[in-house]
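We treat protein structure as text, and this decision shapes the records that our systems exchange. This encoding replaces a full spatial description with a residue-level series of whole-number codes. Below, we set out a record of this kind in full and without editing:
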Amino acid sequence: MKAAVVYQPGGPDVLRIEERPIPTPGEGQVLVRVKAFGLNRSELMTRKGLSPHVGFPRVLGIECVGQVEVDPSGAYPKGQPVLALMGGMGREFDGSYAEYTLLPKALLHPFESTLPWEILGAIPEMFQTAYGSLYPALAIETGETLLIRGGSSSVGMLATQLAGLAGLTVLATTRNPQKESALRANGATHVLIDEGRLSESVRSIFPEGIDKVLELVGTSTLHDSLQCLKPGGLGCMSGMLAENWTIPDFAPMEYIPATVRLTTYDSGQITSPTPVFQDFIRRVEAGHVKLAISRTFTLDQIVTAHHFMDHNQGTGKLVVLP
């Protein structure tokens, strides 16, 4: 099988396509034929050597959709469509940047769908992060105001739609003014051009502040995002588009406004049950949600795909078809 392997940290060119034996599943494992996978900023960080405790060589890839090839337990028949995400994929063990991947059976979510693989490949991590951030973490409610910082990212685009369908007023941000029309077409009520500080712009629209913030850029903008919240408001940090993990000299009493609350969401810690994924797939099939897919690539184009991701050239998800 073909696999994209990283032997040492670096730029996109460290990704090497090579032939490897198809692995054999052991107890508790399932061999999956990868049909599509989405690209994620966390994989970019791992490739750069910024993910703690990841050893090389490593096949990256924290998510995929595909078909069961071999399940020694017999629980899944050959050809069963499945999706998988997180749980150590591409970090603790080899992930989805390959034609086949060996996954713990516990990570698999079986599903049925009429959607093409390039659409399905965009769903697992993008949906789980957007849904998990909005519902378990932010507990959104109809009539609330929500700021999505990083609104032109794939998660931001989907979160905008989900929040709009739930009856929220959405403020979406982008650093690129050329993406404003795409964000409005995606359902954002207000689009803010992010030059580093937003609190004044937000309060010019909502003087008392807003109810909720979904922070996807990361620690570099989190402090300003929290200043946008009204007393009792809630912020959730779910992304690190700026590739910053930590807050130097964090002083909570100065950093977090009084009565404002801060939480996080990590799909590796809390993942939705299988029926939630299946329900979302049905909503996409019915046209209730439009997935923002910026571009598709083949596995042989993985270096080009990472260059594309490095330079933030897309508005939406990047998908690879092995």
Observations:
- Residues 2-123+291-321 form a domain with the Quinone Oxidoreductase; Chain A, domain 1 fold (CATH 3.90.180.10).
- The mean pLDDT is 95.
- The first strand starts at residue 2 and ends at 6.
